[in-house]
Write the structure tokens for this entry.
Amino acid sequence: MSNDPEKLISLRINGKDISAPRSHSVIQALWYAGYPRVKGVGCLQGVCGSCRVLVRRAGSNKVTTELGCELLIEEGMDVHFLIYPTPPHQSYRLEEIRSSWEVQAKFHEIFPEAEHCRHCAGCTSTCPKGIDVERGVELASKGRFSEAGELFVECVMCNLCQTACPEMIAPNHVALFSRRVTAYFHIRPSNLINRLELMRKGGLKVIE
Amino acid sequence: MTKAKTTANLNQVLLNPACRVGADFDAWMGYVGGQGLEKALEDPAAVIQMAKEADLRGLGGSGFPTWFKWNAIANQDAYRDVGEGRERGAVSLAERDKYLICNGNEDEPGTFKDRVLMKECPHQLIEGATITAVACGINKIVFYINPHLTACIEAMGRAVEQWQASRWPSRVAEKTGLKIEYCVKPSSGHYIGGEETAAIESVEGKFPFPRGKPPYPSDFGVHGYPTLINNMETLSNVPHLVRNGVEWFRNLGIGNATGTKIYCLSGDVLRPGVFELPMGTPLNELVNNHGGGLLVGKKLKAVFTGGPSNTILTPKDIDVPMDFESVAARRSALGTGAMIVVSQGTGIVKKVAEYISFFAASSCGQCPSCKTGTYYMSLLLNRIGTGQGTRADLDSLINLCKILPGSGRCHLINGAVKVLDSSLYHFMNEYEQSLLKVEG
Amino acid sequence: MAKGIPYNIALKHYRAQAERPMPQTDFGEELLRQYHPDYLRERCVDLTVGPNAGDPCHRQLAEVLQGDARIDEADLAGSPEVETDVLVIGGGGAGCAAALEASLAGAKVILATKLRLGDSNTVMAEGGIQASVEKDDTPQQHYEDTVKGAHGELDRSLAAQMVMDAPEVIRWLIQQGMQFELDQYGDLMTRRAGGTSAPRVLYFRDYTGLEMMRVLREAVFNSNIEVWDYSPAVELLSDESGHCAGAVVSSLKDYKYILVKARSVIIATGGIGRMHLNDFPTSNHFGATGDGLVLAYRAGARLRDLDIFQYHPSGLAYPPHLAGTLITEGVRSAGAYLLNAAGERFIDELKPRDYVAAAIIRECAEGRGVYAGDGQGRPSVAGGRTPGATDGKCGVWLDTPSIELRQPGIIEKRFPKLLHLGTKCGIDPRKQPPLIYPTLHYQNGGAIIDREAASTVPGLFCAGEVCGGVHGRNRLMGNSLLDIIVFGRRAGQAAAKRAHGFGRGPKKITIEHLRNFRRELMLANMPLARKSPLLFPAYAKFDVDSDYDGLRKTAAAGFIND
């Protein structure tokens, strides 16, 4: 093949010097080199958000946050796994919101920090999925929940934005709240409701 | 030639009882007030040269030569505000804006010297700032004070009023053409607001986010104007330096060090407090003579210098002369002159965890590497400190110390890494002993 | 066996071409019998011990089912005990649904998961969830499609229960806060899947599983359910009468065992992809190592269909480190052909998964595949050695450039995930076809349950992929997300109900079932060296992980005492 995927790359992962073939992800590189890695490994396809890593590339001072299963190794890269999850600190139940008129007030009770956003953009720059996280928080604070939720379609709940927020806002949970209330209060599909009604009246039995 | 200095030189200059008169203009004038300023007005250009010869340093922690910053401001072309943009060009003295921010955001654990200067010697400070302004052609002076220090804000406010009502502003204007405006501005109270570019943002009325450098404040500061930022202690030295001359100032210090330093002693000592001593006084003398030694029955384990953003000194360093160079030679730093004394029996891991948590809470959020990095360091430290940490957690901490430095816009992350790295260097055994015990 | 055409030569001969003729040959059932891995009888053994003794089982699975426990009596001695009404083992979709329902019914619930809550195959499901909601569709049709897909070999009552619950499950999911694609009037959008007689798959972009999992996880976190992450269960506990009475849960955090005394236990641990059966690569989550099957089996639960697995036709075959990564069926639905090394189509690409997979294996086995071995035989980390090719890197083209030719821009718009995958392989799927080979995707068999998700052991419930009988020999797309919620909820409700019926819980918790199982193993002269459950695939080197030393050492000490 034109760009040989088997060429060996040297890098450091969790302080260990490792060589692995080009186009390996950092998790695979670690396994390839024979090191154990259990914590911080999940779906290996970029959707579970387990494998958060800090990365410093050769010749750069910058340290970025990425997902280890998606990050391909590069020469001279320095990678560090962040294995411990960040637990959510807010608590709410959708059933306790009596009507959609109350959502905004409830939101600020549940996420009092959200309106304190200082617009440092740390959450947006830390997001491995490229979501405009800060904008989502702003929209949610203004009560524009469906818009806010829409920005977070690709969110994998890796919690990096929560770790990155100096005001202790949990942006991913803010967004998930936004998405959930949108479904809870506003998704009322007539095709589903009709089907449920019909079945409630005893129709549509299955004959085995 | 070494100059012998003893404890007799305690509180001889800045904290001299005669200086500690509060917002009492007449008392200050009755002592030495105005002498330094008068000398500066005679020959403003000489002041910067004096600072250079006297080796006056930034006493807010950096130890950076003060004259260098002053020179940069004094040499700035004048700017004129032409609406939206700002245009370089020759304008008359009276039209240019240059800012001096007197940094009194003091928020680091273990540091509590500037508050004494602001509350008890506000006129010394105002005169120091005015001399600096005269020397550098500055026309706007902002006293930028931590809002939690209400007594300081009150004292400084009253002192500024007295100063403005005095003959000095018109005297300055007459001699130099500078119409100096003074203002007392409470900072946001965030630790990060003490960083110089963050202070500029804050003075502009915004959240104190550190800016990337360059441009440096001397080129592009408050509203784009050249801006000088000095620590309160640095400025308080100025009237005395100008009044008494370089030779006098150099003689105050021990060895190659010059001037005095206000040390903040805290922790497990008998008499914690602020002590103005010759720069270069040995740690031993501060702790044992002035601080009255450790609490009865306690033995020295470590000293966190300069507030926790610097590093640790251990008992073998007790003889270190406390000036910038000597402390640096011991793999540590003088910083703000804070000395937090820790005795045997105190858990270093827990202590460091406490400091790193402070940094994690203080990180401004702009750089995820800093915010996430400090969060993780504090999480791992807390795990180890509470006996739940594994070998992998410790390895993780060691690696974070390698990967994180220099990754932030400002130095907060470096400070956090420094104290952690230093504690790992000196107390690795203790970290290892704190790890989760494995049975079998 | 033939090696196939070398990658570079095949690629040189490949030309993107909008239309290609459909092959005329149809091998029917014969194709499956000859080439589907399930029909390779030499890969099966008859189980010697346990409730399924005498039944056929895949050899690798048999090894762990008839393995020795990781723990011993000695480990129970010093371990703390915790009491709860319901213990849920597994933190995927089924586990969360079960925990939520049990908690709603008033039970005290502990949910123990091997990794983090939500680390599961659920989160990776792209396609959708089936429910008959359209006017021209009925649960009866859904049922019949399911039976047909299963080749008739399923538990009909479970399938009937599943399709009848489906619409209510969708409502439940929406009330948990899950979103679906809606049309302009706010109705649920539906699409067809292979083997369905009506459009019935509800979906959310290509992220149906992700959307479901994050909503369920959030619901669990915001409930009274106690979540233990990094806590794999290593053995069940039983009471005097052999009923399930809890589990031994280990912790990857502090190396300790905790004995969880539970009135009901729900196993929702998912499938076996990471066992890499027949050396196949897998599309599964890192934790899918069949732990639940092992626990249930040793506790006396009957299993079924242990020789039937689903191989998804389009798993990536090259480069080796990505072997097994799934390319969604949607690409074939959009019209992408499958081509052999000669550039010919060889099967109707939209046939059920088992046929298509078998056809790909046939092409490779008969030397018409593309061979991408490097000749050095370096083992791949994902365990991806494929049978039919000596060096294990054989496959066929998934002709993505052809759909791009027909509809320029479609890949970027509809398959961003595929583009991203291309970057990782160093190819642009709009210009160059990815090489694919079937990937181990789903475990069709598993624990036998009834409509209330109760296993054959009183007190033990099972839900999700760990169960057998719902999908027979072959599962339809969109029925797995449905299965986990239907039986997850049922398990939660039934487990809570059983817990309420108790007085003060079982008096004694033992590992008596383990003693019996060990006796059986010894009497049958079975080796005791193999420890199970596996917990992690071998290449994760879990057993040498310094973090986990404690557990390993304690286990070893227990073994010596024996």
